[in-house]
Each structure stands twice: as structure tokens, then as C-alpha cells.
Design brief:
This protein is mostly helical. The chain has one domain. The chain is 41% helix and 0% strand. The chain contains 2 helices and no strands. The mean pLDDT is 82. InterPro entries: HSP_DnaJ_Cys-rich_dom_sf (IPR036410). This is Methionine aminopeptidase.
Amino acid sequence: MNLWNKWSEWRKAAKQKRITEMEQQGKCPDCRGRGIHILPNEYFQTDPLYCPGCNGSGMYSDWSGSDY
């Protein structure tokens, strides 16, 4: 297994861990429950302070129903 594969697996595991932790807390994993993004990401649209994953609510239930 090369270094790229190890890094990719580590990133997947870290992402899944964050999603699980945020689910337990009831928070959106994209914005960590704030409802806004301080830094733009790949989902950056017209409003830099709007979280498209949860529609700005910061709730996991809204995030889990989205396409992101």
C-alpha cells in the first residue's frame, strides 16, 4: 500500500468520525452546527456565510436530508 492510499483512507476515516460525532450532537458536519461557513468551500455559492448543507439551520437532520 502506498502513501497516497494510506492518506486517502485516513481522510475517509476522519470524515466519517466527524460525521458520527456531529450526528450524536445533532449538528451539521459541514458548518459544525453554526449554520454559516467562515471560509468558502466547494459548495460556495452566492452567500459566503450560508451553509448549503443544512440550509443555514446548523442541524444534522437538515444536513442528512440534503444531497451533499
